[in-house]
């Protein structure tokens, strides 16, 4: 059974090879757990009613119902609320637009790299955490940050930030039990404290990492970071 803090996932695809690969990829991402797999539209709706997943990874080519129809039915009042991310080989703008109109939060094109799926899931988790934090947003910028954290914006990565090191920092931080400082994380992946701090701050701006000051006996705060 998934732990209470896990984001539960239903995978919907008519290809058993694809569902097996997605199952393995999702379960490797910290904080996510696959609770069901469906190979048809009707099976997907039944599984959604049974398992009440938080997130559905949905293919659009299904043997009985169009994937877009499944996405539409998942939004009905008689279905448990679920977010949808489409994973499809279709690239037509009309299809992407229809998926958005039917409530898809994001659209991934097959074949999807494991790293791309992982980043998408982590961004989704960061968005969920921000939306469930309670209270109200004081500034438009806070709402803008939520929308930015959900969508992969590779063009927004500064030239000083490499994708490989960014992923290494995120992987290392995901592996620590609670949190870590920039110095500790730098030692884990073999970079300087300043480099680790730069990447951690970048990840914090993207909504993937949370940084908090911790005050020691000297009164000087040390910033500690953890994955959202």
TrEMBL record:
Domain Response regulatory: 8-125
Modified residues (4-aspartylphosphate): 59
GO cellular component labels: cytoplasm
Cellular localization per UniProt: Cytoplasm
Family matches, as InterPro entries: 2C-system_Tx_regulators, CheY-like_superfamily, Sig_transdc_resp-reg_cit/mal, Sig_transdc_resp-reg_receiver, Tscrpt_reg_IclR_N, WH-like_DNA-bd_sf, WH_DNA-bd_sf
UniProt keyword annotations, A-Z: Activator, Cytoplasm, DNA-binding, Phosphoprotein, Transcription, Transcription regulation, Two-component regulatory system
GO molecular function: DNA binding; DNA-binding transcription factor activity; phosphorelay response regulator activity
Protein name: Transcriptional regulatory protein
Gene source species: Nonomuraea diastatica
